[in-house]
């Protein structure tokens, strides 16, 4: 009788353990994964085109919901409004979002592109940043091009008060510049390349040292609740990154189709993208931090901002490093 009771207890314990494990596994992924895609994030277009997230989470019956992000400002706004789980942005946009209280984490570097420039129309008399004094400059606030504009002005010995900033989305900024409704436009990919090739617009300022990286962001709450899901998204992005490196011509074709731009534009855009390093390292921190004091001077950040703490709290490399332990990170 005693043996029977013991066996029953063991069976019950095993059953409870199975139920507990099943519940824990079910909680390791969300019922729906809301992911953005953006023409400034070519890898997102690859992942979406090949349905790699759908395949990765198929066994878990996770629904993949895609949402277009026209810029870093919109992507991060949607992330913090809980209408996105995975969001693309420029690195300075992520730093700014974190500095003003956004509880976000960066889990992946999708590219290191030279994607920003100050642009004028083909017939514009303007030749340099100093020529912008008192002029109207279109730019999307809170985006990579906006922070690039601030750094460019500083480089020319100017401040944001020396120009008339006209806030507008990237596409509208491009159109306004080409039609001379504004004097210049601080733009990013792919719109700068499109304006150059299709309208003959000119770049009056470039600076590779002032460029943001491409970041993949999640909220702290999502990373804490669904770490396995974040790790698997990183895994899928790694597949896309390696595919992009191995198939540059196919990437150009795909980018042209998915971003709905001519092949010539796709080639020009992608020629400025570096997909070689998905890990954020100390040198990246140094370069990222170098321009932040300028942005504080322009009152874009709270004056008491501790940038070292902001960056430490923002960058979360554990998912990339954990993925690298499998030997699949190259």
The CATH topology of the largest domain comes to D-Maltodextrin-Binding Protein, domain 2
Straight-line distance between termini: 60 Å
- Count the DSSP helices: 16
CATH architecture of the largest domain: 3-Layer(aba) Sandwich
- Assess the beta-strand content as a share of residues: 15-25%
H and E string: HEHHEHEHEEEHEHEHEEHHHHHHHH
Strand order across the largest sheet: 7-6-8-5-9
Question: What value does the average pLDDT take?
Answer: 90
Number of E strands? 10
Helices and strands in order:
Blueprint (H helix, E strand, L loop, with lengths): L1 H25 L5 E6 L4 H9 L1 H5 L6 E6 L3 H9 L6 E4 H9 L4 E8 L4 E5 L15 E4 L4 H12 L8 E4 L2 H9 L5 E5 L2 H9 L2 E4 L8 E6 H6 L1 H20 L1 H12 L3 H8 L11 H9 L1 H6 L9 H8 L3 H7 L6
Parallel strand pairs: 1-2, 6-7, 6-8
Antiparallel strand pairs: 3-10, 4-10, 5-8, 5-9
Helix pairs in contact: 2-10, 2-11, 5-15, 7-8, 10-16, 11-12
Task: Tell me about this structure.
With 330 residues, this protein is of the alpha/beta class. The protein has 3 domains: 30 residues; 177 residues, Periplasmic binding protein-like II (D-Maltodextrin-Binding Protein, domain 2, 3-Layer(aba) Sandwich); 95 residues, Periplasmic binding protein-like II (D-Maltodextrin-Binding Protein, domain 2, 3-Layer(aba) Sandwich), CATH 3.40.190.10. The protein is built from 16 helices and 10 strands. Strands 7-6-8-5-9 form a 5-stranded mixed β-sheet, sandwiched between helices. The chain has a 3-stranded antiparallel β-sheet with strand order 3-10-4, with helices on both faces. The chain has a two-stranded parallel ribbon with strand order 1-2. Strand 6, helix 6 and strand 7 form a beta-alpha-beta unit. The radius of gyration is 23 Å and the shape is globular.
């Amino acid at each position: 009788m005693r043996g029977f009771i013991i066996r029953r207890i063991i069976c019950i314990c095993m059953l409870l353990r199975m139920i507990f494990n099943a519940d824990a596994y079910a909680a390791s992924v969300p019922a729906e994964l809301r992911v953005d895609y953006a023409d400034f994030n070519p890898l997102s277009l690859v992942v979406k085109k090949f349905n790699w997230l759908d395949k990765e989470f198929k066994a878990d019956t996770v629904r993949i919901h895609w949402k277009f992000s026209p810029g870093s400002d919109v992507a991060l706004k949607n992330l913090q409004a809980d209408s996105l789980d995975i969001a693309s942005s420029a690195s300075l946009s992520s730093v700014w979002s974190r500095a003003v209280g956004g509880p976000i984490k960066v889990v992946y570097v999708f590219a290191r592109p030279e994607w920003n420039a100050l642009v004028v129309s083909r017939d514009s008399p303007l030749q340099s940043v100093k020529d912008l004094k008192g002029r109207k400059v279109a730019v999307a606030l809170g985006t990579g091009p906006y922070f690039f504009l601030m750094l460019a002005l500083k480089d020319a010995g100017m401040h944001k008060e020396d120009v008339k900033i006209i806030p507008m989305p990237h596409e509208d900024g491009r159109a306004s510049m080409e039609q001379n409704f504004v004097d210049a436009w601080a733009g990013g990919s792919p719109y700068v390349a499109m304006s150059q090739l299709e309208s003959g617009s000119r770049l009056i300022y470039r600076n590779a040292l002032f460029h943001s990286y491409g970041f993949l962001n999640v909220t702290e709450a999502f990373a804490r609740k669904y770490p396995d899901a974040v790790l698997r998204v990183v895994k899928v992005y790694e597949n896309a990154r390696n595919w992009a490196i191995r198939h540059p011509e196919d990437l150009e074709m795909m980018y042209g189709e998915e971003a709905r731009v001519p092949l010539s534009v796709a080639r020009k855009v992608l020629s400025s993208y570096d997909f070689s390093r998905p890990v954020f390292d100390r040198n990246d921190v140094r370069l990222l931090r170098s321009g932040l004091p300028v942005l504080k001077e322009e009152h874009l950040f709270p004056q008491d901002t501790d940038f070292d703490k902001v960056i430490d709290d923002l960058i979360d490399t554990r998912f990339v490093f954990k993925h690298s332990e499998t030997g699949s990170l190259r």
